[in-house]
Amino acid sequence: MSEATARRRLREPDVRNRLAELRHSTLASAADRLAALPLGAALMLGIVMDDDRVPASVRVRVAYAILSRVVPIRGAAVVEERLARVEAAIDAQEAARGQSRFRAV
Fold first, then answer.
1. Which domain holds residue 60?
2. Max alpha carbon distance in the chain (Å)?
3. Is 41 within the bounds of a domain?
């Protein structure tokens, strides 16, 4: 396909929409893969920390790395949980009034 044809096709709404869908799908897939990595990293840190063959200084650094990240991660989880409860309460109030916070603009 020539560049001119490609540019002309990109002006077509259906082609632009399909391209946007493909980009979104690709980014979502990459995000899902990245989201799975911390669990593997945490497992690896646990293995290194528990391995007596690993020098003590390395195991101490691993333990510190784990501990220094647990508090912020736990804090984010608590905030997310609280936000979900607030959003549910707002949704319930708006449902009782026949409204929705997701209005068409």
1. 51-105
2. 64
3. no
Query: In this structure, which amino acid lies at residue 32?
Result: D
Question: Backbone dihedral region of 98: left (phi > 0), alpha (psi from -120 to 50 degrees) or beta?
Answer: left
What is the C-alpha to C-alpha distance for residues 52 and 49, in angstroms, rounded to an integer? Answer: 8
Class of residue 82 by CB neighbours under 10 A (exposed 0-12, middle 13-18, buried 19+):
exposed
Check whether 70 has a pLDDT greater than 80: no
Give per-residue pLDDT as tens, 83-102. 999 999 998 888 888 876 65
For 49, counting Cβ atoms within 10 Å of its Cβ (0-12 exposed, 13-18 middle, 19+ buried), the class is: middle
CA distance 32 to 44: 19
CB-CB contact of 26 with 40 (8 Å)? no
Q: How far is CA 9 from the centre of its chain?
A: 33
Q: How many domains does the chain have?
A: 2
Is residue 28 located within the same domain as residue 64?
no
Whole-model pTM: value is 0.41
